[in-house]
Amino acid sequence: MQFLKDVWHEMRLTTWPTGGELVRYTGIVLSTIIMVAIFLGIIDTLAQWAFAWFINL
């Protein structure tokens, strides 16, 4: 039971983000995911072309 009281106490000390911060951070995460997906897609396409070229030698 003491554990739950300690958890409750620590949760009250937590600083939660505001709505605007939450939206901004979500946008940052989503844009980062999209950029990484595009980068990996380009690398994958280049690797496919390279392997196809190598096999057709």
Automatic annotation (TrEMBL):
Is Transmembrane helix among this UniProt entry's keywords? yes
Which keywords annotate this record? Answer: Cell membrane, Membrane, Protein transport, Translocation, Transmembrane, Transmembrane helix, Transport
The entry's localization annotation reads: Cell membrane; Membrane
Matches recorded under InterPro entries = SecE_bac, SecE_sf, Translocase_SecE/Sec61-g
According to the UniProt record, one GO cellular component term is: plasma membrane
- Indicate where this protein is primarily found: membrane
What is the membrane topology here? Single-pass membrane protein
In its keyword annotation, does this UniProt entry include Secreted? no
Its GO biological process terms?
A: intracellular protein transmembrane transport; protein secretion; protein targeting; protein transport by the Sec complex
**Transmembrane regions listed in the UniProt entry:** 28-55
Q: Which GO terms describe its molecular function?
A: protein transmembrane transporter activity
Quaternary context: Component of the Sec protein translocase complex. Heterotrimer consisting of SecY, SecE and SecG subunits. The heterotrimers can form oligomers, although 1 heterotrimer is thought to be able to translocate proteins. Interacts with the ribosome. Interacts with SecDF, and other proteins may be involved. Interacts with SecA.
Q: What is this protein called?
A: Protein translocase subunit SecE
Source species taxonomy: Bacteria, Bacillati, Bacillota, Bacilli, Lactobacillales
